[in-house]
TrEMBL record:
<feature type="domain" description="LOB">
    <location>
        <begin position="1"/>
        <end position="99"/>
    </location>
</feature>
<comment type="similarity">
    <text>Belongs to the LOB domain-containing protein family.</text>
</comment>
<dbReference type="InterPro" id="IPR004883">
    <property type="entry name" value="LOB"/>
</dbReference>
<protein>
    <recommendedName>
        <fullName>LOB domain-containing protein</fullName>
    </recommendedName>
</protein>
<dbReference type="Pfam" id="PF03195">
    <property type="entry name" value="LOB"/>
</dbReference>
Length: 144
């Protein structure tokens, strides 16, 4: 895929051939657009053979993220996940505090909520979560 995009003949010792197969042309196109073929070639040549596959996966992931979010790249998805994790931890702490408060005054765990209360609580929780734009942007990134 790399040599085809670069319009050159692929040799048997091509550095790109093992990592950018012909059936994945978009993978190399994205990496080439963000990093450039010569930079990717230099990176791969400097790495030991056993680390090259992981490097290509990382470069592919970063290129995809950088094309989706040119300012933040993959750090944008990391920040999004950290914010989401912090919100979930706050929600869990609040729920534990409410359960402890209820158990202290009523001698046991609270009864299960009625279905109407449950639906209302789910609606309240969904309004706390990430924006639909953030979910759309980072849900398209491949998980590695």
């Amino acid at each position: 895929a790399a040599c085809k995009l670069l319009k050159r003949r692929c040799t048997k010792d091509c550095i790109f051939a093992p990592y950018f197969r012909g059936d994945e042309p978009k993978k190399f196109a994205k990496v080439h657009k963000v990093f450039g073929a010569s930079n990717v070639s230099k990176i791969l040549q400097e790495l030991p053979l056993e680390h090259r596959h992981d490097a290509v996966l990382s470069l592919s992931y970063e290129a995809e993220a950088r094309l989706l979010d040119p300012v933040h790249g993959c750090l944008g998805s990391i920040a999004f996940l950290q914010r989401h994790m912090a919100q979930l931890q706050r929600d869990l702490a609040l729920t534990r505090a409410r359960l402890a408060h209820y158990a202290a005054f009523h001698g046991g765990p609270p009864p299960l909520p009625l279905p109407s209360e449950s639906v209302l609580q789910q609606q309240q929780l969904s309004s706390i979560g990430p924006s639909s734009q953030e979910v759309q942007m980072y849900s398209t990134l491949p998980l590695i």
